[in-house]
Amino acid sequence: TRYDFFSRVVPPDTxxxxxxVDIVKAMRWNFVSTVASEGNYGESGxxxxxxxxxxxxxxxxxxxxxxxxxxxxxxxxxxxxxLRENPNARVVIIFANExxxxxxxxxxxxxxxxxxxxxxxxxxxxxxxxxxLHQEEMAEGAxxxxxxxxxxxxxxxxxISRTLENNRRNIWFAEFWExxxxxxxxxxxxxxxxxxxxxxxxxxxxxxxxxxxxxxVQFVIDAVYSMAHALHNxxxxxxxxxxxxxxxxxxxxxxxLLKHIRMLNFAGIAGNPVLxxxxxxxxxxxxxxxxxxxxxxxxxxxxxxxTDQLYLNIxxxxxxxxxxxxxxxxxxxxCQAGERKKIVKGIPCxxxxxxxDGYQYQADTYSCKMCRFDLRPNENHTACxxxxxxxxxxxxxxxxxPVLISVAxxxxxxxxxxTFIRYNDTPIVKASGRELSYVLLTGIFMCYATTFLMISAPxxxxxxxxxxxxxxxxxxxxxxxxxxxxxxxxxxxxxxxSVSAPRFISPASxxxxxxxxxxxxxxxxCIWFGxxxxxxxxxxxxxxxxxxxxxxxxLKCDISDLSLICLLGYSMLLxxxxxxxxxxTRGVPEAFNEAKPIGFTMYTTCIIWLAFIPIFFxxxxxxxxxxxxxxxxxxxxxxxxxxxxxxxxMPKVYVILRHPEQNVPxxxxxxxxxxxxxxxxxxxNPKTSLRPNGEAKSELCESLETQGDGLLLSPA
Length: 716
Prior knowledge:
Elements: H1 13-26, E1 31-37, H2 40-56, E2 60-67, H3 75-83, E3 91-95, H4 98-110, E4 118-121, H5 136-139, E5 143-147, H6 153-160, H7 173-181, E6 183-184, E7 197-198, H8 217-238, H9 254-262, E8 265-267, E9 273-275, E10 286-294, E11 297-307, E12 309-312, E13 339-344, E14 347-355, E15 360-364, E16 367-370, E17 375-377, E18 384-386, E19 389-390, H10 397-422, H11 427-431, H12 434-455, H13 460-495, H14 507-531, E20 536-543, E21 552-557, H15 561-584, H16 595-618, H17 625-648, H18 650-658, H19 671-684, H20 695-707
Parallel strand pairs: 1-2, 1-3, 3-4, 4-5, 6-7, 19-21
Antiparallel strand pairs: 5-10, 8-9, 10-11, 11-12, 13-14, 15-16, 17-18, 20-21
Subcellular location: Cell membrane
Membrane topology: Multi-pass membrane protein
Family: Belongs to the G-protein coupled receptor 3 family.
């Protein structure tokens, strides 16, 4: 805005800064330092670099150091110490003059930093020899930049032919001649001991002195031609067909001339197009050099170019020590798979790597997220994978033992049933109450069969059957036993008050009572089905370990621990009630009926279930919870059935098969006679009740036996 008539055929430093940013990013360097000579060139160049790096992102500045115009002794050593504060920032961006570059390299060499710093120099360094002279190893690997240029041969021919005679128009040429040939044109200017000689005018440029074309000659020629083309175009517009200036161009309108300059587009002396953008800047064209040492010979080698975008031959690059591996200049190393970046406040290129632990996975570069409840992270926590589904397998030891017990129990139950059916009309079978016996054996069979439902793979059908049969088998068993103990209790309780038989002791009545008690269990299950239909679920919480690799989903039925207690609660109630009646009838003569075996059965069953409860609920936090609880439950149910089967039916089967002589009917009398005898005996001889084996009551029971099949088992 201050110099709106300013145009240039060389690219501005903003393009140079952009090219340097592109080089840094191509090398994957993201943490660099900058050094600038105090003044417009150095400071504006570094500012442009920092601005471009912020706009593009991905590059951060570790240190930004300025070299004073008149540095004090030790100033460059101080600069090197600042650059060493962060050893990860090895790359140094330099916008400095030749002398500052040379002294900076000397200070780095003195600090024994050879090979540590990677220098990226602006066009003030370019391909010059003076900054690196005698410190080639310190500068090895340096990447520098220069506006793309070409040597103009026509200029060489012209300039070499210049002499004092043919170039008098250039008032500075005589001074150049003296400096170039180390001579003096005037004899009076010679001083003794100066080593200078008098110029002879026979000296020739390039023959008697070294000559190398100045690199900016191309741009000077293009600048002159730009002005010439602009004036020519303006003349054609304002003075068509006229030679020389017309009145419209006298004086020149600067604004109109600027317009024609900015509209130019012609081939320059080197063949490159010459044109200007709206700010009067030429397009950026740079050549990229690297200072390399090969076979002890140092040279600048072109490794790429930049024209709006970077082209870099990375394979042609060599680094300090002759290596080809690109050195690091990064604040933080890349995070491993499964790690997120936690950015250091204010420095976006620096971060700490934090592992996505537990059930987290790496959602993106900067965040970890929890896997869905049915998923767990993979090995490197970059994604989620399904949690394996497990169930109780038939081959598992947790299943084999309950299955073997159940198979043995089912075989024993079937053996008892077959025996009872075969000897159905024998006194022992009849006296044991055939109807209730078959009902009880059915309940025992169902208890054993429950094991197979508990181990089978859960689905809607299996889960429904579990709800029905898990409590049903036990309900049938304990309902039958409760009916028996209640009947015995009522008979002997009635005998102490009256000689008349109690009500509801016939087989039909006993079956009705048993099925009525069992129907309560079925009614509860039906209500449960209505409120909460049965289904198989996958429980991911029971085995959700701290280590995700150990996590498992448990395929099971939707029966909670509380639901299970409610399901078995009614059976427990029947069992406790039956135990109470068993205690009440403990005084029944030992040889009478099944009161004592039923009592022992209930005591043992209570012990089994008292042991079951702490095992079942004490393992609720165990990793093997499902296996332990299923095995404990099935074995407890099977043991309960085994106790009933063993104590109530095995003695009878033993007598039927091994001692058939004991399986004979007893002498009976009429009910009226027995009741009368028992009453008179109790009335006139109170000690009658103390007779061995309770003979008075024995007769009563024997008579009742004839009144209803299976009411009581008479003494053998």
